[in-house]
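Write out this protein's structure.
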Amino acid sequence: VPKGVDSNRFQPTGESHRRSLGLDGKRVVLGVGRFVPIKNMALLIDAFATMAASDAQAHLVLIGEGPEQANLKALVDRRGVAARVTFVGYVAQDDLAPYYRSADLFVLSSDFDNSPNVVLEAMACGVPVVATDVGGVKEYVSPEGGELVRKQDVAALSSALLRWLEDPQRRQAAGTFNRRRVVEAFSWRASAQRLLQIYESVLSARRDMKVPA
């Protein structure tokens, strides 16, 4: 049964935090997740810092909290991109949609993730996704809607960020594709319909069973 996301709450239209975050005119890369080693936000920071010299309008927004927060902020300082990285802090899931709508590109940089909600949430908001090829992420992210890269590969992730940020038409097409894909295959309605089909199949098979006299 496919995982479902609330495609009414997470959708492309609605409030955005671009202006309140001072991001008007920027190309915004968004990361959302716990600041723990397995999520490897350091990879995203390193990849962003590597490509930042080639895109003066790129800006990284990180949402989350956790034991790695101090280390991540120190890494941003060491890489010289403190003015181009915004740490938002913890945001409740119910309040995330405006942040997704503020992004040009969503990035998942985990060393492992089974089936992360954040990828589907970003897709439902019409945002293209670049992610590390881990766990079940490939079930969500297709070439039409984003790109998968090797985990722990700074160069590969950096190159992917630059390619997507430099191509607004590709981002728009990918965002439209992702929204449609979520509604058709990964919305709460689609998930519930698939579960209902399974129940109906099981019950039908049971009704057709021949019970010995």
